[in-house]
Amino acid sequence: MSEKKIRYYENYETDFFENGDSYRLPDDYKWVRKDFLSRILSAIIYTAALIFSNIYCRLFLHLKIVGAKKVRKVKKTGFFFYGNHTQPVGDVFNPALACFPKRIYTVVGAANFALPVIGKILPFLGALPISDTLHGMKEFNKAVEHRIKEGHPVIIYPEAHVWEYYTGIRPFSPSSFKFPVKLDVPVFCFTVTYQKRRLGKKPKATLYVDGPFLPEGETVKEKAQTLRNAVYDTMKERSKASTYSYIIYKQKDEDR
Question: Torsion angle, CA of 26/49/155/196, rounded to 10 degrees?
Fold first, then answer.
């Protein structure tokens, strides 16, 4: 029996997939592309990605989705969908399957646009990159609001960095929860958990959908905090469904 992989981290901000950290979005980047060619390409690429995701997530991640009916009951409005970040490829597709037939848009770091091949098609897959400029953040915020008002789910990974096959829930801030408070739309969360399979080294994945969660408090800050707490506590509880660790994560110097 081979030993399990061990990854060492300094803190919860450790990035195991560092690439393109210095990448900056072009000054003329368009978060919402309305021209005919972009819309056609987007429809074709997104449809192809859905087909691929069914194959990849079912056959390679052995994914099972529990509770998808909760988000599919939301018919006329968009919503925010928060999840744990544990698959570099699967996290592009998992929420799309859970939200189908609605098309998703996903908040991502600009560094992802430096990835070979996939970086070029991310805009057509619905990526909403975070900008490092004041003007860019204004356009980003407008794009998020635009997609929500169109009735689409917006996916947010509040843990920020991918920790592949990680079975816990890392701490995250309430900052991204100001979006649903200001736009007055539902909040849901999904938690990907891992269980051992009878055959094969890699585990199977079970994705749990929970919500909707309602904000409590007087101010935007208070409401964002209560939403964050509700989502975090739910994800922590759901993570207990993980019964197998394919990769062991240890803090540096933990063994010393």
Answer: -130
